[in-house]
Amino acid sequence: MHELSIAQGLIEVACEALSGCAPPPVRVRSVLIRVGALSGVVPEALEFCYGLSVQGTPLEGSRLSVEEQPVVVFCPRCLENRILQDASRFRCPVCDTLTPQLIHGRELELISMEVIDHDEQTSGCPDDPGPGAP
């Protein structure tokens, strides 16, 4: 299961990005990533591994959200980018021409992180009532 090493790498990249924040956030609420259909990553397995791997890190308690990126190819006949429904068949879904030029589908990108900063922590937030709340 290579998703464990991917989750650990993702956490390392996210923690590095957080270290550049001044002041550092109080907590990370969620992390959004984009995973291409041809990346070889199983989103459910990655979410599971992420949940295990964030323990004891600045991301502990955060939620991983996965945005799946479909396979997009360029059709040389239509001169258009086309989304493939069947990633095992690299043919234009409109004209059936071979489409060897991959535009999207192999991504594995950290898109964003939702953080709680010091102001939100002290003033309270509807989604996070803070310590001691019922």
Topology:
Blueprint (H helix, E strand, L loop, with lengths): L2 H17 L7 E10 L6 H11 L9 E7 L1 E5 L4 E5 L16 E4 L3 E9 L1 H6 L11
Parallel strand pairs: 1-2
Antiparallel strand pairs: 1-6, 3-4, 3-5
CATH topology of the largest domain: hypothetical protein PF0899 fold
Spatial strand order of the main sheet: 2-1-6
Number of domain units = 2
Question: What is the CATH domain class of the largest domain?
Answer: Alpha Beta
Q: What is the radius of gyration computed over CA atoms, rounded to a whole number of angstroms? A: 19 Å
Question: How many helical elements?
Answer: 3
CATH architecture of the largest domain: 2-Layer Sandwich
- Structural class, from helix and strand content? alpha+beta
Largest sheet, in brief, is: 3 strands, mixed
Head-to-tail CA distance between termini: 39 Å
Let me know the average pLDDT. Answer: 87
Strand portion, in percent?
25-35%
Q: Which word captures the global form?
A: elongated
Helical content (DSSP H or I, runs of 4+): 25-40%
SSE series:
HEHEEEEEH
